[in-house]
């Protein structure tokens, strides 16, 4: 009996340790499990988005808030441009107090707005920031910021075909 309990304990320790951790990789992997199940392409981690998420988390720590807008009412997406990320679409998920990435993403999937961000076909990149505790004081678990985005791309107009006559196009 003692030996079987020891084996079960060793098994849980070996396989439960990775499930218990909230890391950037485990968060992105969990998000992509849900996207793949929904027939969507996986998100790619972008270092500029991760730096912007770190800036965002640091701002919340320094000002002692936990909200999608800062105390002055500014959007979380203000952190993207200083990191050189010009976006077409952007979204944010926040979570605090969770112990595993799986449980955290399960919670997001139960919230329409968070679920919509995870499963949005408009996003193809993300950045993640994680701290122990909370931005508003001492707390258990980890706090996570995920910034989702799609970079703005410049689409070159097709070269004119001299064999084709067309009417003038509207240009901005």
Gross morphology is globular
| Helix fraction bin | 25-40%
Oligomer: single chain
Residue windows where pLDDT falls under 50 for at least 5 positions:
1-18, 161-172
Please provide the count of β strands.
4
Class by SSE composition: alpha+beta
Q: Order of SSEs, N→C?
A: HHEHEHHEE
Assess the beta-strand content as a share of residues: 15-25%
Q: For the residues shown, what is the average pLDDT?
A: 82
Strand order of the largest sheet: 1-3-4-2
Give the N-terminus to C-terminus distance in angstroms: 77 Å
Number of helices: 5
Largest sheet: 4 strands, mixed
Q: What Rg do the Cα atoms give?
A: 21 Å
What report would you give on this structure?
The chain has 172 residues and is α+β, with helices and mostly antiparallel strands. Helices cover 38% and strands 23% of the residues. The chain has a 4-stranded mixed sheet with strand order 1-3-4-2. The chain is globular and about 45 Å long.
Chart the SSEs and their pairings.
Blueprint: H1 2-20, H2 24-37, E1 44-45, H3 47-63, E2 87-98, H4 101-109, H5 112-118, E3 125-134, E4 137-151
Parallel strand pairs: 1-3
Antiparallel strand pairs: 2-4, 3-4
